[in-house]
């Protein structure tokens, strides 16, 4: 194998991994109203890339050892692909997502779950793809490597992301739900859905490989494209929902006299929010935007929480109001320096 071929293989593998990382960054960036801490998103990606694949492999090995070799031979190994594999992989990815829910105070809606789920899923896909790609590279089969990179990066990686994002979204709904029974039901539904989607995909792939029918491959690609479209539409709907939450909750705060009127005219709109004219100091703009967003989402969550949790969330709302009043009153000349254009074109979020 020539050095040029080795170099091309290395560049191909690196480019594929970089592409998946960039997708995570783009999804994180799109969550423009209430972005999660980038460090937590990176940690979720790391769990998917390192811990989850290792633990899933150990789990699959132990399960096959308990069930015996006969299970692994059933239907040419198909039952391994549609049974143990999806359950182990989605189960360990779910552990990472649950850890995020437990450790992050910022996780408070379905959009957050979608972001973290995508990060965990693409992290897992990156490692899984890397193992397959290194095997093809070691065999010196450049054509197979390129085919593998293209298929696994554009299709298989997406399935991992979709499965984990589905679970993450349900975790987001569970955080807003009242009562442990309902929350448990939402989490369980998300996990079962992720495992079922993963298992169904593995079944379709196995059937297409066994049949060697190009039509089966075409159907799979079309299915993945449809799932990607559903993901994009869902993300857009959730982002619009966040925009509406900001509009409604901040309008209430303005009516109560807690916030000045310009807050409701600027901060629910992303394009207006990123302008440098609504507050003179950039660092203060960042603090104000975060406090206002947190206030709006905590208020929105109050109506969904059980009484004991709502009481604690209500105290947080009071503290956020007090802090905002303090920050907004800090600069006495801010109103004179601020030049908000409430009639600007493109007022959509």
Portion of residues in helices?
over 70%
- In percent, how much strand structure appears in the residues? under 5%
CA-based shape: elongated
- DSSP strand count: 0
Major beta-sheet overview: none
Provide the low-confidence segments as ranges. 331-349
Helix and strand topology:
Elements: H1 3-30, H2 38-67, H3 69-73, H4 78-103, H5 110-138, H6 142-176, H7 180-211, H8 214-256, H9 261-266, H10 270-273, H11 282-302, H12 307-328, H13 334-337
Helix pairs in contact: 1-5, 1-6, 2-4, 2-5, 4-5, 4-6, 4-7, 5-6, 6-7, 6-8, 7-8, 8-11, 11-12
Explain what the structure shows.
This protein is an all-alpha fold and about 350 residues long. The protein has 2 domains: about 5-210, no CATH class; about 245-335, no CATH class. The chain has 13 helices and no strands. α4 (about 80-105) packs across α6 (about 140-175) and α4 (about 80-105) packs antiparallel against α7. The longest helix has about 45 residues, at about 215-255. The radius of gyration is 24 Å and the shape is elongated.
């Amino acid at each position: 194998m020539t050095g040029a071929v080795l170099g091309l293989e290395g560049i191909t593998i690196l480019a594929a991994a970089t592409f998946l990382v960039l997708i995570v960054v783009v999804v994180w960036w799109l969550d423009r109203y209430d972005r999660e801490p980038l460090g937590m998103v990176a940690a979720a990606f790391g769990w998917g890339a390192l811990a989850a694949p290792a633990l899933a492999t150990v789990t699959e090995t132990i399960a096959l050892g308990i069930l015996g070799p006969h299970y692994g031979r059933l239907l040419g190994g198909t039952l391994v692909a549609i049974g143990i594999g999806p359950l182990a992989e989605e189960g360990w990815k779910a552990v990472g997502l649950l850890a995020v829910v437990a450790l992050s105070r910022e996780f408070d809606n379905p959009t957050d779950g979608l972001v973290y789920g995508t990060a965990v899923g693409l992290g897992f896909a990156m490692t899984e793809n890397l193992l397959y790609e290194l095997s093809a590279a070691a065999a010196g089969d450049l054509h197979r490597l390129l085919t593998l990179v293209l298929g696994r990066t554009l299709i298989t990686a997406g399935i991992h992301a979709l499965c984990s994002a589905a679970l993450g979204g349900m975790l987001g709904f569970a955080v807003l739900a009242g009562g442990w029974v309902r929350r448990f039901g939402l989490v369980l539904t998300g996990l079962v859905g992720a495992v079922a989607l993963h298992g169904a995909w593995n079944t379709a792939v196995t059937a297409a490989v066994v049949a060697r029918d190009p039509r089966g491959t075409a159907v799979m690609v079309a299915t993945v494209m449809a799932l990607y479209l559903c993901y994009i539409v869902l993300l857009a709907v959730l982002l619009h929902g966040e925009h509406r939450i900001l509009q409604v909750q901040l309008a209430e705060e303005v009516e109560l006299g807690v916030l000045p009127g310009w807050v409701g005219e600027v901060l629910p709109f992303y394009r207006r929010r990123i302008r440098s004219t609504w507050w003179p100091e950039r660092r203060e703009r960042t603090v104000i935007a975060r406090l206002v967003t947190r206030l709006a989402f905590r208020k929105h969550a109050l109506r969904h929480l059980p009484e004991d949790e709502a009481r604690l969330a209500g105290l947080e709302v009071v503290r956020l109001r007090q802090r905002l009043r303090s920050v907004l009153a800090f600069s006495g000349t801010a109103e004179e320096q601020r030049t908000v254009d409430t009639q600007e074109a493109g007022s959509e979020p």
